[in-house]
Amino acid sequence: MLKIIYHEDYLTDYFTSAAESPLRVKAIYRRLRDHFETVTPEAASPEDILRVHTSDHLEGVQSEGAEVYRTALLSSGGALCAARLAMEGMPAFAIIRPPGHHAKASSYSGFCFFNNMAVAVTSLLAAGSIRRVAIIDFDMHHGDGTEAIFRDHPAVDFIEVRARTRERYLGLLELKLRWLGGVDLIAVSAGFDLYVRDWGGLLETDDYHYLGYLIRQAAQNKAGCRCFALLEGGYFVNDLGKNALAFCLGLSGEPPSVLCGDDDDSGIWPEP
To answer: What pLDDT digit, counting tens, does each position of 86-99 carry?
Structure first.
């Protein structure tokens, strides 16, 4: 059964942008808490951060103020918690804030301070827990920080999709997952800003269910059922909770009622 990772301190009201507010995680948690068990994470340590980021970067985030630094460490801690649960065979979705996929090794931007995904994946690689991992980023915005950190890393496959229609988007993602070789883990940067009423204007709520189910099927077929997801973007707060719930239902293994893939006849993978 899928678990969610959440901490009340993700509601800390520091300011980076009116769009990236505590209301985002609050809306998601309210919608998910009655469906999945909640796990409370601990903060990442500076040592966890320094596997990915430079000491100057760490000091730069500290200079943003105690509230930002403390919450950013806790966000990376939520990512570490999700990764550990995944390695124990339990899919997990971390409702964390601040997001992370724009943070590079020595710079931060786009509401992101530490690259939560890189912190989690690098921790597992350093411990020898995994030898190969696929990172899927379905945020509207390019995960430039994650891609830059892992660009030359032979153990990491970074997957994004760009398309002008929802059918093409979902079809391309399914194809990329079919072509993916065997990995030890699938990790997901889950942004919900491609939603039709958000900035991206592309995906429907049902598409997030389908998307989550595609990833769960890929994890079963390619990664020994090990998968986890981290919250990135998504700014239309009114529907953010239901979109995250749809994704989590799919990631937990609940089949979508309608298959939403591309127009070819390949369909979704059958149950293994």
So the answer is: 999 999 999 999 99
* Angle 269-162-172 from CA coordinates, rounded to 5°: 20
Beta bridge partners of 37: 3
pTM exceeds 0.90 for this model: yes
Domains and CATH numbers, the chain: 3-251 (3.40.800.20)
Catalytic entry in 101, 102, 141, 209: 102
The answer to whether residue 102 is catalytic is yes
Tell me the average pLDDT across 59-78.
97
